């Protein structure tokens, strides 16, 4: 059995999935504050400190606490933060956010959501954004072409101001077998999904370095870690975007001596947008639980939270996408078995590309 997107791009599926379970577990049995009260509860019930249940639960609490401590120290190191003093309050009213591919999908929702926060939003796209928000400014721009990005960036800086946040969100997908890809298909995929990131960085990063502040969000895909049938060019372009993100982080820290500029990598699974409305996946309870599709608002909330926290990070949604990078280290038979369970090599069989050249949110199909 398979499910497809409706005309609006939303499948019929249950809201109960593993992501909800993980979220609950993080705040209960995997949360140090919650676990701390387990041995305390037994002691108040009359148990001795040497009783196995108290000793085991105490050891478990120490283990959980050490895990979160290491995670927190890693976060502090990555952001060169202080143990007691975090970044100052993020003033949304003073931000100028540039979003590529912001006229549809996740980009459109992100632009309108930020506009509600009184943020000056600049949308770069080949199609105009339909919005009633007065603080969203649209510039027609094919971000795959350096000359256009260079010219438009000068207009943005002159008319709006120097951007404080850059969200490289534009993306296209061909959905063809390798031998069916035309040279212009491959060129378009890499130009929009990869080269555009270079052009926008060249255009807007210098002003961030001058101010020694800013945030760059790279919307890639879980398919950048593990590809599938009919996704060769897309996956290769997203893998390149991921490597660009990692190089950028190192250059900001080591060469430019500017860790204050934050970087966030977004590697989502299948997002429910029109770009992948003809993608087909199993309609079984097992699949919907372990490999759920993601609503655009989920990704938008995570991106906004990352900007608000002012910490460099990676956003991987839904939960299973956290494990995809490790799939390549499995023996070949296990690698193929995981791909079979995830329906990765069959989801694009009936894929139909959205007509016209339409940069979207860079979502990927399930893997």
UniProtKB/TrEMBL annotation:
Query: What is the organism of origin for this protein?
Result: Lyophyllum shimeji (Hon-shimeji)
Protein name from the UniProt record: Short-chain dehydrogenase/reductase 3
Molecular-function GO terms, alphabetical: all-trans-retinol dehydrogenase (NADP+) activity
Q: Which PANTHER family match?
A: PKSB, RETINOL DEHYDROGENASE 10
Chain ranges passing through the membrane: 20-44, 53-70
Per the record, what is one GO cellular component?
Answer: membrane
Q: What is the lineage of its organism?
A: Eukaryota, Fungi, Dikarya, Basidiomycota, Agaricomycotina
Q: Which membrane topology describes this protein?
A: Multi-pass membrane protein
Q: Which family is this protein grouped under?
A: Belongs to the short-chain dehydrogenases/reductases (SDR) family.
SUPFAM superfamilies given for it? NAD(P)-binding Rossmann-fold domains
